[in-house]
Design brief:
By secondary structure, this protein is of the alpha/beta class. It folds into 2 domains: 3-68, Orthogonal Bundle (Chemotaxis Receptor Methyltransferase Cher, domain 1); 80-273, Rossmann fold (3-Layer(aba) Sandwich). It has 12 helices and 10 strands. The strands form 2 sheets. It has a 7-stranded mixed β-sheet. A 3-stranded antiparallel β-sheet has the order 3-5-4. Helix 2 packs across helix 4 (58-68). It is globular and about 60 Å long. The model has no long low-confidence stretch (mean pLDDT 91).
């Protein structure tokens, strides 16, 4: 891959997804585009870039961007955010929403669906009192390929084992050969959509909890600031924003601040973070 090829692909990725690749990511580009080159029967990345430059096939652009986007996830990933959700956040929201009996969640950049399904499993397993509530769980990702897999709810033994308690696997999954499929009653709790955080957002409901974990690490500060501003518009005033352990709103947003009483990357609007019971 030439320097010109690498620079073109990096610019393409920024333009389409706002994700920034550092100078040291050449190996990653080569590794992730190798299968794309094979599928298209092309001799090299240079030939692939030539096709991208021509603009004659938008599907190839989509394929390249999706191949370069990181899709790392697992059930109950980093466990702490979901412990906080179960023990602290959900009980508080249930009290706050008792009159309307409705809860709405958004798992942004959800990859193959384990995160929104973890929310659904948590609600079903630990909060039977929500059976008659209106529950909305939205899972979105820029990659149509991973969204298609998420909708199926079918996982390999390795994917199912990662973070998923054995009792939940036995109770909510059915094994077929070497794969495990999540029960339809849980799958039906989640709506999946393709969604690009870096472009114009479609109409969204107001959310009680937005999970945007391990996503903003790939964006530059102006993009982070814009995304947080947009989230502010779709998060209820006393709602919760959940970021990854290495992410922060510090020096990016004056609206959100970390909830010191709730470990696991939870943020609220500044006026609520200090007033919420703890």
């Amino acid at each position: 891959m030439t320097d010109a090829d690498f620079d073109y692909i990096r610019k393409l990725l920024v333009d389409r997804s706002a994700i920034v690749l550092g100078d040291d990511k050449r190996y990653l580009v080569e590794a992730r585009l190798a299968p794309v080159i094979g599928q298209l029967n092309l001799p090299s990345i240079t030939e692939l870039v030539s096709k991208l430059r021509s603009g004659s096939n938008p599907a190839i652009v989509t394929k390249v961007v999706e191949a370069l986007v990181t899709s790392e996830t697992s059930f109950f990933r980093d466990i702490s955010p979901f412990e906080v959700l179960r023990k602290q956040v959900l009980p508080e929201l249930i009290v706050a929403r008792a009159s309307e009996r409705r809860l709405t969640f958004w798992s942004a950049a959800c990859s193959t669906g384990q995160e929104p399904y973890t929310i659904a499993l948590t609600l079903r397993e630990y909060f039977p009192e929500l059976a008659n509530w209106q529950i909305t769980i939205l899972g979105t990702d820029i990659s149509t390929e991973v969204i298609a897999k998420a909708k199926q709810g079918i996982y390999s033994q390795f994917e199912a084992n990662r973070g998923l308690p054995a009792k939940l696997m036995v109770k909510y999954f059915k094994q077929t050969g070497t794969t495990w499929q999540l029960d339809a009653s849980i799958r039906d709790m989640v709506e999946f959509r393709p969604f690009n955080l870096a472009t114009a957002w479609p109409a969204l409901p107001m959310f009680d909890v937005v999970l945007l974990r391990n996503v903003m690490i790939y964006f530059e500060v102006p993009t982070k600031r814009e995304i947080l501003t947009r989230i502010e518009r779709v998060l209820r005033p006393d709602g919760y924003l959940v970021l990854g352990g290495s992410e922060t709103t510090l020096n990016i947003s004056d609206t959100f601040c970390r909830m010191e009483r709730a470990k696991g990357g939870y943020y609220q609007r500044r006026e609520h973070a200090s007033l919420s019971p703890g």
